[in-house]
């Protein structure tokens, strides 16, 4: 996660509004997104989490263009100056949320692939589908963030940043599937597969409940298994 750390300042008087977690589900009391306790030992992280939680709430309610920094600061129960010192403004908050989502998805996928390989799996298609499942499950767990980045309402230059990450994603999938990127047919096949995963991740944000989300993940993984098989 990006952002300059500073010592925690004095919180404004009064009751702060409850803020939902940036993940799709509530976390147990005293637990952070990483499963570690949030306490006095992590004041900097607590400040950053408060700012990012508030920013996500305002971005999803108003859209990026109409989101106000004063409202974000008020919802975070921190002074406006703290927001600027940590993130430099609204764009910095948005990009920090994006980086957090991207890094969490990459960590989740990498952990799944490591576990599969550790269990003796070496089939490229099986590994690819396992990684895709991990990514889609992450999109469901972090659906508020996934929905935010699916919208065409972000800071200037974000579309370019997202396209760069998409290209890197395609290259990683090509290596995982052991596809020769010099062959146009292979590149196109991997790009189509990656696009299917991205489209499914966006659909998961609109699922009514976990049962529906799991049904979609299972169906998409079946499609990916079929499409990943090279033509004879």
Structure description:
With 232 residues, the protein is mostly helical. The protein has a domain of 131 residues: Tetracycline Repressor, domain 2. It is built from 9 helices and no strands. α4 runs antiparallel to α5. The protein is elongated. The N terminus is likely disordered. InterPro entries: Homeodomain-like_sf, HTH-type_TetR-like_transc_reg, HTH_TetR. This is TetR/AcrR family transcriptional regulator. It comes from Streptomyces bullii. Keywords: DNA-binding, Transcription, Transcription regulation.
Which features characterize this protein?
transcription, transcription regulation, HTH_TetR, TetR/AcrR family transcriptional regulator, elongated, DNA-binding, 232 residues, disordered N terminus, 9 helices, Tetracycline Repressor, domain 2, mainly alpha
Could you write a compact summary of the structure shown?
With 232 residues, the chain is mainly alpha-helical. Helix 5 packs across helix 6. InterPro entries: Homeodomain-like_sf (IPR009057), HTH-type_TetR-like_transc_reg (IPR050109), HTH_TetR (IPR001647).
Detail the topology: elements first, then pairings.
Blueprint: H1 43-62, H2 69-76, H3 80-87, H4 90-118, H5 124-141, H6 143-150, H7 158-176, H8 184-204, H9 210-228
Helix pairs in contact: 1-2, 1-4, 4-5, 5-6, 5-8, 5-9, 7-8, 8-9
Q: Percent helix among the residues?
A: 55-70%
CATH architecture of the domain at 98-228: Orthogonal Bundle
CATH fold-level name of the domain at 98-228: Tetracycline Repressor, domain 2
What overall geometry do the principal axes of the alpha carbons give?
elongated
Q: How large a portion of the residues is in β-strands, by DSSP E?
A: under 5%
Order of helices and strands: HHHHHHHHH
Pfam family, one: TetR_N
Keywords: DNA-binding, Transcription, Transcription regulation
InterPro entries: Homeodomain-like_sf (IPR009057), HTH-type_TetR-like_transc_reg (IPR050109), HTH_TetR (IPR001647)
Protein name: TetR/AcrR family transcriptional regulator
């Amino acid at each position: 996660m990006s952002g300059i750390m500073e010592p925690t300042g004095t919180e404004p008087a009064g009751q702060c509004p409850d803020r939902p977690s940036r993940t799709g589900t509530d976390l147990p009391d005293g637990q952070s997104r990483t499963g570690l306790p949030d306490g006095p030992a992590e004041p900097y992280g607590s400040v950053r989490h408060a700012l990012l939680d508030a920013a996500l709430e305002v971005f999803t309610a108003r859209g990026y263009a109409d989101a106000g920094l004063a409202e974000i600061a008020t919802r975070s129960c921190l002074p406006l100056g703290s927001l600027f010192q940590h993130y430099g403004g609204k764009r910095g908050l948005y990009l920090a949320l994006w980086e957090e989502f991207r890094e969490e998805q990459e960590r989740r996928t990498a952990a799944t692939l490591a576990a599969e390989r550790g269990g003796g799996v070496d089939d490229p298609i099986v590994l690819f589908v396992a990684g895709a499942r991990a990514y889609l499950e992450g999109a469901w767990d972090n659906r508020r963030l996934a929905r935010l980045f699916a919208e065409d309402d972000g800071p200037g230059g974000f579309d370019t940043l997202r396209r760069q990450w998409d290209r890197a994603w395609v290259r990683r999938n090509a290596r995982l599937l052991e596809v020769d990127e010099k062959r146009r047919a292979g590149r196109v096949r991997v790009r189509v597969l990656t696009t299917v995963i991205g489209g499914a991740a966006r659909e998961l944000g609109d699922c009514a409940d976990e049962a529906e989300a799991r049904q979609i993940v299972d169906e998409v993984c079946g499609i990916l298994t079929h499409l990943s098989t090279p033509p004879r």
